[in-house]
Design goal:
The chain is α/β, with parallel strands linked by helices. The chain has one domain: Fe-S hydro-lyase, tartrate dehydratase beta-type, catalytic domain (fumarase, Alpha-Beta Barrel), CATH 3.20.130. Helices cover 27% and strands 26% of the residues. Residues 2-173 form the Fe-S hydro-lyase tartrate dehydratase beta-type catalytic domain. GO terms for molecular function: hydro-lyase activity.
């Protein structure tokens, strides 16, 4: 496991390769479809975003309400492809990482390479377990979206796997080919 800390530097991103297992520490932000649309529209108008995403990671998640003794409820990844139409613009703005699950479009993959960014996968179906790595949670934008609001999360050893690296290598493409050779 490779420990990394946010915000992500180019040096850290360039060292990561597909298949690397990482433990993320620091601040990450959450955003899903509706929040992405709003962020995209602000950027297109030349307006400021409600949070500074430069060098940051967005986690594609809509957490459930927290139980009384927890800072957040279940927090598993959602399908990343739903954000693909907005993601290249956010990467061009300065976003450096995304956590989700599933394939990304050709446009997103090109934007990852162009911006020296990275895409991580988190384990789907493990939201309760993943939530235990979140030590602080607060809504920082779009509270009207409920669980799809933008949250600022502080994480300690949040587990993820590099699935698209800054060179454009894609584990979803390379992994099956390697398996079929054996």
């Amino acid at each position: 496991m490779i420990k990394i800390t946010t915000p992500l530097s180019e040096e850290v991103i360039e060292k990561l390769q597909i298949g690397d297992e990482v433990l993320i520490n620091g601040v990450i932000f959450t955003a899903r479809d509706a929040a992405h649309k709003r962020l995209y529209e602000l950027l297109e108008k030349g307006e400021e975003l409600p949070v500074n995403l430069k060098g940051q990671i967005i986690y594609y998640v809509g957490p459930t309400p927290a139980k009384p003794d927890r800072v957040i409820g279940s927090a598993g990844p959602t399908t990343s492809g739903r954000m693909d139409k907005y993601t290249p613009r956010l990467l061009d703005y300065g976003l450096k990482g995304m956590i989700g699950k599933g394939l990304r479009s050709k446009e997103v993959q090109e934007a990852i390479v162009r911006n020296k960014a990275i895409y991580f996968a988190a384990i789907g179906g493990a939201g309760a377990l993943l939530s235990k790595t979140i030590v602080k949670s607060e809504v920082v934008a779009y509270p009207d979206l409920g669980p799809e609001a933008i949250y600022r999360l502080e994480v300690v050893d949040f587990p993820a796997i590099v699935v698209i690296d800054a060179r454009g290598q894609n584990l979803y493409e390379v992994g099956p080919k390697q398996f079929l050779k054996e």
